[in-house]
């Protein structure tokens, strides 16, 4: 799951089998989000650190804030070296950006509190649909909250303009 840090809206989600590692989903989630939203930063935990993941984030026009593992060296492409040195020599500045990744944990918590932590459906397809419905409901909830908190004036289409588009 990838989420916005200001609104906690889920911008992308992939539902996988339990034995599939999350890091394989990272590029697709970043790319899909980058097509719909302007991304300035992407924060993720150490499990997502790879040269490919850093490049995907940069290609989306964002700065990757993914901490390096203890055995990592600064050898690699320019972006890898640049972020490695920023991480090594300005840890406080790096961590200020990195800690935004806790928003995804907040979203998981929000969804579990509102819609329950268990999946009740029995078949795999129904389970996926149930989870996706929970994501849609979450996004609608944070959309309404953001309208009020951020003072956004919603625009609704007149019925006649909808009929014109359908015809």
Parts with pLDDT < 50 across at least 5 consecutive residues: none
What is the number of helical segments per DSSP (H or I, 4+ residues)? 7
Shape: globular
Which structural class do you get from the secondary structure elements?
mainly alpha
Calculate the terminal CA-CA distance, rounded to whole Å: 37 Å
Order of helices and strands: EEHEHEHHHHH
Strand line-up in the sheet with most strands: 1-2
Radius of gyration: 19 Å
* Proportion in β-strands: 5-15%
Average predicted local confidence, pLDDT: 92
Count of individual beta strands: 4
Helix content: 40-55%
How would a textbook summarize the main sheet? 2 strands, antiparallel
How would you characterize this protein structure?
- The protein is mainly α.
- It has a domain of 116 residues.
- Helices cover 53% and strands 7% of the residues.
- The protein is built from 7 helices and 4 strands.
- It has a two-stranded antiparallel ribbon with strand order 1-2. A two-stranded parallel sheet has the order 3-4.
- Strand 3, helix 2 and strand 4 form a beta-alpha-beta unit.
- Helix 1 runs parallel beside helix 2.
- It is globular, with a radius of gyration of 19 Å.
- The two termini are 37 Å apart.
Structural key phrases:
single chain, 167 residues, mainly alpha, 4 strands
Write a brief caption for the model.
The protein has 167 residues and is mostly helical. Helix content is 53%, strand content 7%.
